[in-house]
């Protein structure tokens, strides 16, 4: 299954589990990538598409799903811009989302090897317990400062149009 179909399928599966999904195409002055909360007892998650790269989409989706899984998304949605990034709930959701995408032990083994060529990144992304698109491994390496954000920039496909089509279908 190609990566575009995986994005659409993921959103469909999330909705089948009763989680409402709201996609906003980069709302003005929106400092967050996603939000998870409850409305009338039903979980929902919103993705801002502020950063429309494939890796960012998957991380934001997993991060917000982890908030729902942890049942720590009962906070009022109007407080979302005031939650500090070092909040325990945020740190736990970050850790769980990272590990759901790429197992920590696989990531740490790759980092220990210290070979950050694109071919090495492609091979590692394809060979993990959960094979992922190389941009997901690239995003994690960049976030952890092993790579500069400008490196391999063309390897981060945009998913804005795809996500918007899926959300309106």
From TrEMBL:
It comes from the Bacteria. This is IrrE N-terminal-like domain-containing protein. Pfam families: Peptidase_M78. InterPro entries: IrrE_HExxH. Residues 40-113 form the IrrE N-terminal-like domain. It comes from Deinococcus indicus.
